Amino acid sequence: MKKLTAVLMASAIAMTAAHAQGGTVTVVTSFSKDVTDPFKAAFEAANPGYALEVQNKNTNAGVQYLTETKANNQTDLFWASAPDAFHTLKANQLLASFVPSVEGLPEKVGSYDVNDPDGFFFGFAASGYGIMWNERYIKANELAAPAEWSDLKHPQYYDHVVMAAPSRSGTTHLTVETILQGEGWDAGWGTLKSVGGNFQQVMDRSFGVPDAVNSGQAGIGIVIDFFAFSAQASGFPVGFSYPSVTTVVPANIAIVANAPNHDGAEVFVNFLLSEPGQEVLLEPTIRRLPINPATYAKAPEGFPNPYEDARFQAMINFNGDLSSARSAVVDVLFDQLITFQLDNLKAATRAVHAAEAALVGKDNAEAGALIAEAHALIAAMPFDHEQAVSPEITDAFTGGENKTSRQSELEQAWATFAAENYAAAKAKAEAALALLS
Amino acid sequence: MTVKFKEPKMAQTRDGAAVAGARKIEITNVNVHYGELHVLKDINLEIQPGEFFAFLGPSGCGKTTLLRLIAGFNNASSGDVRVGGQDILAMPPWKRDVGMVFQSYALWPHLSVARNVAFGLEERKLPRDEVARRVKAALELVGMGHLADRRPSQLSGGQQQRVAVARTIAIEPKVLLLDEPLSNLDAKMRVQVRRELRDLQQRLNLTTIFVTHDQEEANAICDRIAVFGDGRIQQVGRPMDLYERPASLFVANFLGTANILDGELVTVDGKRLFKVTDTISVPVPDGVTISPGTRLVFRPQHASLEDAGGQGVRLPGRVSNIEFLGASVRYGVMVGTSEVLIDVPFQSGASVRTVGADVNVLLPSDCMLWLAE
Amino acid sequence: MTNLAIGRLRRFSATPGQMAVVLLIAAFLLAFLLVPAATVIYVAFTEKGTSNLTLVNFLDFFRNDLFVRSFWNSVYVSSLSVVWATLFALPLAVITTRFQFRGAMLIQTLGFLPLIMPPFVGAVAMQLLFGRNGSVNLLLDQHLGFKLPFMDGLNGVVFVQSLHYFPFILINVSNSLRQIDSAMEEAAQNLGSSGFRLFRRIIFPLAMPGYLAGASLVFVKVFDDLATPLLLNVKDMLAPQAYLRVTSIGLADPMGYVISTILIAVSIFAMWASVAVMRGREYSTVQRGGGGLARRKMKRGEAILAYGAVTLVLLLVLSPHIGLLLLSFATIWSFSPLPDGYTMANYGRVIGESSIYIKNTLIYASLAGLIDVVLGGAIAYLVLRTKIIGRAWLDWAAMSALAIPGVVLGIGYLRTYYGVTLPDGTPLATLSIMLVLALSVRRLPYALRACYAAMQQISVSLEEAAENLGANKRRTVRRIVLPLMMGGILAGFVTSFSTAAVELSATLMLIQSNSEAPIAYGLYMFMQSPAGRGPGAALGVIAVILVAVCTFASHYVIERSQKAMGARK
C-alpha cells in the first residue's frame, strides 16, 4: 500500500512539472495531428521560446471542456472549423476580443464574414462543401460521378451515399443550412429527403464520411473540401466536386477569456494569419483554402481560389442569424425525419423509384398522380419555416418559458409524422407500380 | 452428569498419563440460532482435563455447530464456554488456542507440508530455529518427517490427514478439536489412524473433542460420548454405559443394533402385561412405568434361542433369516409381525437352525429395557 | 427473544479494521464515481430550463417510440451476444484447460486480444475485412456473385460484439476450470459419465461462478457499449442514443441522462440476477489442495477436431487484428480485397512519438489495474466473508461504473475537481492522477468480478484453519486468501489493465497535453485524417503488442503458480 501511494505521488508530480515552463501556448482544437503538427513546427521555428501545446478534442467536447473549466481556465486558444461552436462560446463569454496585427485580410470569403464583427474570433482558412466519391467504387457499380446536389436524388445512387448527421457535425450542419437557405424551407427539405432516400448510412462524425469513401465502404459522400483534398494527397482514389449551390465558410481561431498566456495566444493568432502561417495550409496533408489572398500565389496548380473562382463568387447569401436561431430545430428535424427513420425513408424511396422506372414510356395518369402523391408525402414537413423559429418550438429545446411541449414530446410527434407519411408514400408507390404492371 | 475422570476403562488406564497440563472445558446453557432456526438447545457439558470426548450423532444434529462454537466460527445467542476456566466466547478465533482439525483438512495448497505446519508457529512469532525444531517434531510425531517438502496435492488422504493433525498440535493448543477427521479415509486407514489419534492424545495429554457420526469410532477410542439428537444432548456417558443403559429409544437405536417391540400395557388378573400381539405378551417388572409410546428394547446378543436354557421371558417365533458373522450366527426371528435379531455364539460342530423353524426367543429379564422416545 | 437479539448483534459486528476498509472504499467510490456522476446525471430528474425535480422525463422515455425500440434492440443484441460469445469461448476454455494442448498459454493470450482492440482503428479494420465492400464481400461478389451482410444492422452488432467481448467468458471460465478439483471429474467418470455429458452435468456447473461472472459482464458491456453500434451505424440502441444526445444536444438535455440512468439500472439488474442465481449454492472447489483438472491427452481424432475448432475461432476473433496489421503496412487500401502496396513508412512516422505514449499508457493502465484489484479484492472479501452492513451497496456502487458513460464521468470529474486547486493554482482535475482514477473507476467492475469469482472458489475452511492457528483476519488475508486468489487477481488486473490501456472516452475529456497522453489519445489524433490512417494503424498494432506482451507475461505467471500449487506430475 505504501509503495502504491509513493508511485502514485511520484507520477502525479512528474506529470505536473511539464506545465510550469514559460512561453507555452495551450490550444484546444478539433484539428487532427496532420494539421496541428506542421503548424506547431512552423510556429515554434518562427517564434523561438514559444511552445505550442495541443489538446485534441472534438468540437463539442472542446466547447464542453471550456465551459466546465472556465472557473480556472488553463487554455489559451480554441481552434476549430464549425463557426457555431464559436458563436456558442462567444455567447457564454468564454472568449476574449483581439485585433490582429496582420494587414491585407479580406472582409468576406464567399458570402460569409471572415471575422466576428466584435473581434472575438477570426477566420484563418476557408472551406467549401461538396461531393466526394470513390473512383473504384463508382466504376465497379457503374455509376456516373455526381456534380450537383440534385444529382444525388437519382435512383442510380440508391444506397450509395453517406453524410454526417448535422447534429453530429458542425460543418455538415452548415451544409444543410446552406441547402435550406438556398432552396427555401420546404424545397430544401424536399431535396434533403430525396437525397436521404439514397443514403447508405448517416454518419455520427464528420470524418466518418471521408473515411467510408476512402476505404470504399460507401461510394459517395457529402463532405467539406479539405477531407477530399487531403485524401487525394494521401493517394486515395477519390474525386471531388463543388456543386453550384454551396457556400464557403471560414475555419476559426479564438483567444479564450482569462487565458493564462494571453500574449502567447496573440502571437500565435498573428502567426496563423501571416503569410508564413497561411502557407502551412497548402501542405498536402492539410489542403485548406488560405484566408490571406496573397498566399494563393504560392499554391500548386489546380488549387481552388475562392477569391477568383467563378463558382465561389456565385455562392448564395448566407444568413447567420437565421442559422443560429433554428439550429437545434434543424438538427433534431434531420435526425427524426431522416437519421432515425432511414429504413422507412429508404423503403418509400425504393418503392417510388420502382414505380417511376415502370412509368417510363407509359402514359398512365392515375399512376403518375399516385407517384406525385408519394413524392409529396415524403417531402411533407410537420411545420413551416416560420414555426421553426417560433418560441413555442425553440423554447422546447432550451427549456425557455414559451414552450408548449417538452423536446422529447416534439421528437416523438415528428418521428410519428415521418413514419406515417413514409409508410403512406410507400403504399401509394406500390399501388402505382401495381397499376403499371 | 458427574462421571469421574479416570474411572477404570480399558484403553484409558493403559498408560495413565499425567493430567497436569490438560484443560477442562465447561459449556453452560448454550443456545445457537441461525435466523429462526434453533440449532443448539440448552447445551450443558463438562469435559474433564485430558479426556478424549466424542460428540456423536446423525448429521444435522448440532454436533459440528457446537465444535465450531468452541473454535470461534459460530456465535452463541446465549450461554458460556470456558476452557481451563477462561471464558472464550468473547475472543476471536485466533486468540483462543483451541486447535482444530478440519473435516476437509483445509491444507493450504500453495504452501508445502512444512510451511503448512510452520504457519501457526510463525503467527506466534517464534524464533526461526524454534519454528523449524517444532515443525520437525510435529511431523516426526505423525510420521511425516520425510515428506516435509511436498505439496498437499502430492499426498494421499491419510498423509494429508496426518499433516493436518501435525499442523494443529504444533502450536501446542490448550484443547484439540477433531471434526470428523476420519471421514475422508478408507476403512482400513480409519482403524489405523484412529488408533494413532488416540495414542497421540494420550502422549500429549490433550483434552480432545472428536466429532463423528460413526458410533464404532466413538466407542473404540473415546473416554466419554455425548449423543446429540435434534439440537440437544440426549445422553452423556462412557461407551459401555451408553450401550447397556441407553436413556432413550434414540440413543439405543443410534448405538449398536437394538430390537424394538411395540405394544401396549394391559392388566390381567392384577398383573401388568406388555401386549405385543394377541398371543404374545411380556410381564412388566415392578417399578417400571409404561406410558403410551414406551417400547420393549433388547440387544441381539442378550437374547438367545430357547434350547440354550436359562431364565426369562419366552417369545414364540419363526426363523426368517440366517446370517453367519464368524464369531456368531445372527438369526432373524419373526415375533408377531416384527422381526427381531438374535446373536448366537458360533461353536464349531454346533447345529444351525433352518429358515422356517419354530423357535422361542428367550429374553433374560435383566436385559430388557423399557424406553420411550 | 433477547437471546435472538444478541445473536444478531454479534453476527453483524465487524472488526475495526474491516470497518475502516469499508469506509475507505465508500469514500473512494463516493469521491471518484458517485459524486462526479451525480453532478451530471441529476439533470435526468430536472425539468429542462429549470431546476425543478421531476420524473416526467422517464415518462417521456417510455412514450417515445425510438427510445422504446432502442431499449428492446439493446436487450436483443446483448442476449444474443452472450449466446455467441459463449459458443466462441467455451471450446477455447475447455480445450486449453482440460487437455494437454500445445500452445494453450498462447491461445489464452490470443483469445484475450479482442478486448484490447484500440478505438477507431479496430472499426476501420473490421470494415475493411467484413464490411459491405470489405475483402470478404468483394471476393464473394467477384467469385460467387453475392455478398453477406456481416456488419449490417442488429445482427452485425451481435457479430462484432460477441467477437469483441467473448474474452470475458474465456478468462473467467478458464480460471474456474483450473480451480476444479480433479476428484470431482474423476468421481463423475467413475459413475459412468463422460464426454459432453460429463462437461454439461459436472464440469460446467462447477465452473458456473466464472461463467456467470463472464456472461454477466458480456451482457452489461454489450448493453452499455456505444462504440460498436456507432461503428456499424446502428443508432437505435440505448447506449448510442445516450451518447448521441449527451454529445450533440448538450449537457442540459435531460433525456441523455434518463437513458444513462436506465442503462445503469439494467446493468445493475443483470449483475444482481447473476449473483442471485448463485446465491445459496456451494461452489468452493479448492478444498484439499486439488491441483485443478487433470489434463488429458487427446486422441488423434479429438486433436484434429480441437485444433480445427481453435484455429477457426482464433481466425475469426483475430480477424480485426489481422486487418489492423495489414492496414499498418498498407500504402493505400480502398475498395480492394488487399492493400495496393506495402510500406514501413507508417511505422517510421509513429515510432518517434510512440515512446511517450507507451510510457504514459503503461503508467496509467498499470496504476489503474493496481487500484482495481486492491479495491475489487477488498470488496469481494467484504461481500463474501463478512456481514458488515452496507457491503452489498459497495458492490452495487462499484458495478454501476460499468454503465456510466466515460464522457459523463469525464465531465463529472471536471465539474467536481476543476474548481479545487493545488497551492500553485493547478486545478486538481488537470493532474494525470485524475485520469488514472477515472480509468480505475471505469475498469473496477472487471477486476471486481474476477476477484469475486476467485474468492467464491476458496473454501472458507482454509481461512478458518488459519484463524484457528492464531492468524487474525488481516494475517489470514495476507497469508492464505491473497496467495490462493492470485490467479483471479491477476486475471482481474490483466482485464483492467488492458482495457484501460485502450480507453478513450474519459481520456479525451481529461487529458491535458500531448506529453501526458496515452496511446488511445494518440490513435484518436491520427485517425482524424486520411493521411493518419496508416500511422494510426501502426500505433494500434504497437498498442496491441504492448498489451499482449503484458497479458502473456501475466498468463505465464498464473500458469507457473498453478503448477507450483498442484500438478501431480
Automatic annotation (TrEMBL), chain A:
Keywords on record: Signal
Pfam family membership, one: SBP_bac_6
Coiled coil spans: none
Signal sequence, renumbered to the chain: 1-20
GO cellular component, one term: outer membrane-bounded periplasmic space
Entry-linked PANTHER family: PHOSPHOGLYCERATE TRANSPORT REGULATORY PROTEIN PGTC, THIAMINE-BINDING PERIPLASMIC PROTEIN-RELATED
Name of this chain's protein: ABC transporter substrate-binding protein
Species the sequence originates in: Devosia limi DSM 17137
UniProtKB/TrEMBL annotation, chain B:
InterPro entries from the UniProt entry: AAA+_ATPase, ABC_SmlMolc_Importer, ABC_transporter-like_ATP-bd, ABC_transporter-like_CS, Mo/tungstate-bd_C_term_dom, P-loop_NTPase, Transp-assoc_OB_typ2
Cellular localization per UniProt: Cell inner membrane
Keywords annotated in UniProt: ATP-binding, Nucleotide-binding, Transport
Alphabetized GO MF terms: ABC-type transporter activity; ATP binding; ATP hydrolysis activity
Keyword Ribonucleoprotein applies: no
Keyword Glycoprotein: no
Source superkingdom: Bacteria
GO cellular component: ATP-binding cassette (ABC) transporter complex
Membrane disposition: Peripheral membrane protein
Domain ABC transporter: from-to ranges: 25-255
Protein family: Belongs to the ABC transporter superfamily.
Protein name per the record: Iron(III) transport system ATP-binding protein
UniProtKB/TrEMBL annotation, chain C:
Occurrences of domain ABC transmembrane type-1 (ranges): 71-270, 358-554
UniProt feature coiled coil, ranges: none
One cellular-component annotation, GO: plasma membrane
Primary location class: membrane
Annotated signal peptide: none
An annotated GO BP: transmembrane transport
Membrane topology: Multi-pass membrane protein
Keyword terms: Cell inner membrane, Cell membrane, Membrane, Transmembrane, Transmembrane helix, Transport
DNA repair as UniProt keyword: no
Annotated TM spans: 21-45, 75-95, 107-130, 150-171, 202-223, 255-278, 304-335, 362-384, 396-414, 426-445, 480-502, 537-558
Subcellular location: Cell inner membrane; Cell membrane
Family: Belongs to the binding-protein-dependent transport system permease family.
Protein name: ABC transporter permease
UniProt source species: Devosia limi DSM 17137
